[in-house]
Amino acid sequence: MAGPAPLLSVRDLGVTFATPRGPVRAVDSLSFDVPHGRTLGIVGESGSGKSVTSLAVMGLHTGAEVTGSVALDGRELVGLPDRELNRLRGRRMAMIFQDPLSSLHPYYTVGEQIAEHHRVHFGTRRAVARARAVEALAEVGIPEPGRRAGEYPHQFSGGMRQRVMIAMALVCEPDLLIADEPTTALDVTVQAQILDLLARLQQERRLSVVMITHDLGVVARVAHEVLVMYGGRAAEQAPVEALFASPAHPYTRGLLDSLPRLDDPDDVPLRAIPGSPPSLLDPAPGCAFAPRCARAAAGTEEERARCATERPALGGAGGPEAAGGGGVPGAPGVSGAPGVLGGHTAACHFAAFPAVAAHEGTTAP
Ligand SMILES: Nc1ncnc2c1ncn2[C@@H]1O[C@H](COP(=O)(O)OP(=O)(O)OP(=O)(O)O)[C@@H](O)[C@H]1O
Ligand code: SF4
Ligand SMILES: [Mg+2]
C-alpha cells in the first residue's frame, strides 16, 4: 500500500554536459524518493555523479541539459524559472557544501551573513534577522553566540565554520537539506560532532536530508536509506540495515570490503576496488562496472559476455518487476520508487539478494 507522498521525488533524472570531446552523461536514469523526516545517503566513488545530482535537485546547473523530473512536495522543479527556484532555495530546500570557507564571505561577520539570508527570504527587519541569526548559532552549538555572531569566518575553526554553514542553511527552516560531503575536510572527532548535530536537527525538525558522501561510515551513522551510485547511475538502493547486512551489488560489496575492520592487523593494506571509474564520455554498452567486477570475473564465459554487452536494469530480488515493493523501477508514483521506500534493488544481472544467494549455494551475511 502506498505510504504518504515523499517530500522529494526524483524520476529518471539525466544530466548531460556538452564538452569539446562530446556529451558527458554525468547522471543517467536516476530515480529516488526522500520521505518527510528521513535521511537518504548517496554514496559512491569520486566522479560517480553525487554532486551533479544534488545540484540538479537544487536547480543549480547552468549550461547542462537536465531531463526527467524533480518534484518537491509534488511541485515540479525541472524547467522552473530561476526567479521561482530562488524563492524555493533557502526557504524550502537548502544545501551545505564540503568547504565552508568558499561559501562564506570573508568581509562580513557570520551574524550579518546569516541575518541577510533570513532578511532576503522573509523580508524581516534588521534587528529581528540579527536575533534569528544569534538563535541559529546557538542551535548549532556555537558557544557565546551573541558575541561570535560579530566575528568573521576566519576567526572560526573548521568545525565551527561548518556549524555556521548549517545555521545559515537552517535559519529559513527549509524542509529539505542537501549536505554534500559536509564533513570530509574535518578531523574524525569534529566529523562525528557535526554528524550528530545534523542527526539531532533532522529529528527535531523532521527535516528530510540528502547526505552525500564517499564514506560508508557516514552513511551507517546517519542514513535511513542508501543510494549507491556508480558511473552516474544507481547501482543499489536499500534501507541502510539491508545494505550493510546483505549488499546485493558487487560494487557495494567492494565498497564494504574496502572499509577498515577493527580486527585488521595494523600492517594490512586497505582493500581498494581495483581499476578506475568508467568514462562517461563514451560509455561501454554493457554493465559499467564490468571491467572491475569480481563477480563477473568469476563467472562463466556466457555470464561475462552478458555483463559486457547488456546493461543491467535496476531490479529487486524477484527481478526488475519486484523492485520497490511491487512497483516498477523508474515508474512514477510512491510505491514505484525503486528501493528507497523499503525495497532493495540492485542493477546487476547476478545481484546476490539473500534468497537468490541461498539458491546459488552461497551464504548471505
Ligand atoms: N561542468 C561539467 N562539465 C563536464 N563534466 C562535468 C561537469 N561537472 C561534472 N562533470 C563530470 O560529471 C561526473 C560526476 O561529477 P560529480 O562532481 O557529480 O562527482 P562526485 O560523485 O560528486 O565526485 P566527488 O566524490 O569527487 O565529489 C564527473 O565525471 C565530472 O567530471
Ligand atoms: S552485471 Fe555483471 S559486471 Fe555488472 S555488477 Fe553484475 S556481475 Fe558485475
Ligand atoms: Mg562531489
From TrEMBL:
Q: Which GO terms describe its molecular function?
A: ATP binding; ATP hydrolysis activity
One GO CC term on file: plasma membrane
The yes or no answer to whether the keyword Mitochondrion is present is no
Q: Which SMART domains match?
A: AAA (SM00382)
Top-level taxonomic group: Bacteria
Please state every residue range assigned to the domain named ABC transporter: 10-256
- What InterPro entries does the database record attribute to this sequence? AAA+_ATPase, ABC_Ni/Peptide_Import, ABC_transporter-like_ATP-bd, ABC_transporter-like_CS, Oligopep_ABC_C, P-loop_NTPase
Biased composition, class Gly residues, residue ranges: 315-330
User: Region (Disordered) spans which residues?
Assistant: 304-330
Q: Which Pfam families match?
A: ABC_tran, oligo_HPY
PANTHER family the UniProt entry points to:
DIPEPTIDE TRANSPORT ATP-BINDING PROTEIN DPPD, OLIGOPEPTIDE TRANSPORT ATP-BINDING PROTEIN APPD
Its family remark reads: Belongs to the ABC transporter superfamily.
Protein name per Swiss-Prot or TrEMBL: Peptide ABC transporter ATP-binding protein
Q: What is the lineage of its organism?
A: Bacteria, Bacillati, Actinomycetota, Actinomycetes, Kitasatosporales
